[in-house]
Structure formats: structure tokens, C-alpha cells
Amino acid sequence: MEQIAAREEKEFIVSEITAHRYGRKKPIEFKVRWLDYPPSEDTWEPHWSVKDLEAFEKYLERNPKLQKRFDEKDVNIKK
User: Fold this and answer.
1) Helices 54-62 and 64-72, axial angle in degrees (round to 10)
2) How many CB atoms lie within 10 A of CB 56?
3) Which tens digit of pLDDT belongs to each residue from 29-76?
4) Model-level pTM?
5) Residue 4 confidence class, pLDDT cut points 50, 70, 90
6) Backbone angles phi, psi at 27, to 5 degrees
7) Are 56 and 48 in contact (CB under 8 A)?
8) Could you tell me which of 49, 56, 60 has the C-alpha nearest to residue 17?
């Protein structure tokens, strides 16, 4: 009989987006701060995983130059 490991699925909630970066040959990434986690647990996430979040919209509002680039170019923008 095959044993299957059970794993509890946790739900992680985005508190805010704190930064962005451009990778070599990679799309833009955003640094995500997770609700109830310290800054040491922040992670870099691709655009497609944050693009529909309210935190993403707020981040763009604080970064109008970046917003303009999204308005003008493809979502895989590079530096």
C-alpha cells in the first residue's frame, strides 16, 4: 500500500509590495511582504502572481514611472 503524505495548505496573504527588480533575461519581479511575517520572510514574485492584487495597484501608485512603463510596454518589461 502506498503512503501519501498529508500536508496542510497554508494561505499566505500579501501585506504590501515593497520593491521591484529587473532580472537578466527575466521579467520584472516584485518583493512581497506577507501578512504576519517579518521582512526577513519577504519573497520575490513574478509579475503574473501579483498583477491582480490591490497591493500591486498601490505599489504602482507610489511608483508612477513604473506605472508609465506598464502602460507603454509589455508586462515582461526589462530595465
Assistant:
1) 110
2) 20
3) 999 999 999 999 999 999 999 999 999 999 999 999 888 887 776 555
4) 0.77
5) low
6) -65, 165
7) no
8) 56
Which DSSP symbol is given to 37? S
Residue with cell 500536508: 7
Cell (9 digits) for 76? 515582461
Query: How many other β-carbons are positioned within 10 Å of the β-carbon of residue 6?
Result: 5
- Supply the pLDDT for residue 79: 44
Q: Record the cell numbers describing residue 63, joined without a space.
A: 511608483
24-42: pLDDT as tens digits: 788 899 999 999 999 999 9
Strand intervals (E) in 1-79: 14-21, 29-34, 43-46
Using the 8-state DSSP alphabet, how is residue 8 labeled? P
CB 49 within 8 A of CB 27: no
